[in-house]
Design goal:
Layout lengths: L5 E6 L6 H18 L2 E6 L14 E4 L4 H4 L2 H8 L9 H8 L1 H10 L7 E4 L4 H6 L15 E5 L9 E3 L2 H10 L7 E5 L3 E9 L2 E2 L3 E4 L7 H5 L5 E4 L4 H17 L5 E9 L4 E7 L9 H7 L5 H12 L1
Parallel strand pairs: 1-2, 1-3
Antiparallel strand pairs: 4-7, 5-6, 5-7, 8-9, 8-10, 8-12, 10-11, 12-13
Length: about 300
């Protein structure tokens, strides 16, 4: 393995997460320059042929959405024997499809919320109401989440608590013609754990004034708090164990962010695993690194080392 000097940062793309990916990519690019690497920002939508990346020693994937997280890019880079950050194609496929993620977690006896899948979010489902038999597998519940099986950054995620909110979700949904999941709402703490090189960083608790950690709370609001989780030593040990088990069960490599809830009985539930986490100024990965005195650039360096 030769020395890494010249790095391409792939960002942007055409997904609903383009804006966030641009912020992530620019942050990583600046960090690479600070670390002494040569770095080139490349918008995925402007990349005509992936083999153009063969001139680089390493590709840092800051491309959110299906283009960077679904496994296609990783598969093509593997064919070209190009080193890159993060997980391979199989793990990306496992984590991008939230239905498949849940199946794998269930198979490995890892706690996840109860959920049901639908092929598309139709007007008929929205008008049938919460008393419809489709929701029977989730009963009893006070509220549930609706979210796409394949998307990120809290796009088209809605909290449903009555028939009217179900109807409103359909009206506000940007793309109802795709697979969705209805997932039970876990009341308690919302937490996230960064894993880099099979090591869990300090858990972060997310506190928002919004109804839930939606797009506005995640990327826009300055009122959302990302603080070190107030957990005792036994809870910290447990959350790290379940996060690492999920990371390994899904075949992840290099780095990822594991999102969880802790209910009022102190039980942890894995919500999802993100193989290309956000690296914006609001993001939890650099925040978690700061809790162990790592700068943003230090975190980027660790991700590179973990991916080799």
């Amino acid at each position: 393995m030769g020395k890494i000097n010249n790095i391409a940062v792939i960002y942007g793309g055409t997904s609903s997460e383009r804006e966030i990916s641009i912020k992530s990519g620019k942050g990583v690019h600046d960090a690479l320059i600070d670390l002494g690497y040569q770095s080139k920002l490349i918008d995925f939508r402007d990349l005509e042929y992936i083999d153009e990346l063969k001139i680089y020693d390493f590709v840092f994937i800051a491309l959110h959405g299906f283009e960077g997280e679904g496994g296609f890019l990783q598969k093509e880079l593997d064919k070209l024997n190009i080193m890159y950050s993060g997980s391979g194609p199989a793990a990306c496929a496992n984590t991008w499809d939230k239905g498949l993620t849940k199946k794998i977690l269930d198979l490995n006896k890892i706690n996840t919320p109860n959920s049901i899948e639908i092929d598309q979010f139709t007007k008929e489902i929205s008008e049938a109401g919460l008393h419809s038999s489709i929701f029977d597998p989730l009963r009893p519940f006070d509220s549930i989440f609706l979210k796409p099986k394949e998307d990120g950054s809290s796009v088209d995620i809605f909290k449903i608590f009555d028939d009217d909110s179900l109807k409103q979700a359909y009206k506000k949904c940007l793309n109802p013609n795709r697979g969705f999941m209805f997932q039970e709402f876990i009341k308690g703490k919302e937490l996230t754990v960064t894993v880099i090189d099979n090591v869990c960083f300090p858990p972060i608790e997310i506190i928002t004034n919004n109804e839930f950690y939606d797009y506005e709370a995640k990327y826009i609001s300055n009122d959302t708090l990302h603080i070190e989780a107030d957990l005792n030593q036994d809870e910290i040990k447990e959350i790290k164990e379940i996060s690492l088990k999920a990371f390994e069960s899904l075949g992840c490599k290099g780095w990822a962010r594991v999102d969880l809830f802790q209910d009022t009985d102190k039980n942890f539930f894995i919500i999802e695993i993100n193989t290309v986490p956000g690296m914006t100024s609001h993001s939890n990965v650099p925040k978690s690194g700061s809790l162990i005195n790592l700068s943003y650039s230090d975190v980027v360096q660790r991700i590179i080392h973990a991916s080799l």
